[in-house]
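Quick question, first post here. What does this chain look like in 3D?
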Amino acid sequence: MNTEFTLRSNGFDLSTAQNRIGRLQPNHPNEPIESLRNSLKTQGYLWLKGILPRDEVLALRARYFERMAETGIVDARSSHQDGLYSGKRDTSGRGTHLLMEFVRTAAFEAFCFHPIIWQFYEKLMSGDVYLHKRKIVRHTYPGEEKTTDAHYDLIYLRGGTDSVLSSWIPLGDIPLEMGGLVYLEGADAFGRKMEADFSARAVDLSPAERIAAYNKHMSASGGIGKDLAALADRYDTRWLVADYEAGDMVIHTAYMIHAATQNNSRDNRMRLSTDIRYQRIRDEIDARWVNHWSMEDML
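> Answer (accepted):
Ran it through. Tokens below.
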């Protein structure tokens, strides 16, 4: 698979390992639900193309960068929907305050409770569902070297059911050059084995330590690794990449290993996304996720 730019993650080059890169397989939201359940079980993910109204996704993107404009990170000559980077980072801390406000707004909450989303989850999970209150929004600057490490979500959700599902929603078009999430092919099985190994070693830990992402059996970040090519070599598999569009939604299991790559936007566009989590209402809920996201919650 050839690219016109370098796929990087946390300073490590993935583009040189062409045999370790593949393409994410899309799903149509209107496929029979049993077919979608089977795809989720076998792949560890569903990439639902165009499931959400594109105009509503772009409106939320514009709303976000309109709020962030006062920090100086948005190019004043661009539209808020474009979200072009000014080249200036926010050093005042104001951006963090605005971000914590944004995830609590009625507009963002309404988007996460979009009928299309919760009704799809009700079909997928065959019953009433619960949306975790802790919901995350991330913007990523062009050229920013630090990206999300490889990890599986249960590391941060061990206090509840392992049947929780994550939705990663690109808020705007995110072609491959802008990074976005990448998934380790076949890695739901790898994540399950890792978690089983962790559980076996965690018998000496207290209940609080056992569910923590950061303890003596885990890395300092809770992640699995930063060098994605080396991780693909270790498991003899590939990282699956995609050109995402506004309106798409990716669902993945709590064991599916994933990471993010660097934003190399040639248009100087900031990447924006949200990740939210649904589960069956009757399953155990991780108490740490029933509060709004804050930078101090250590998750």
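The domain at 8-289 is CATH 2.60.120.620 (Jelly Rolls).
The mean pLDDT is 94.
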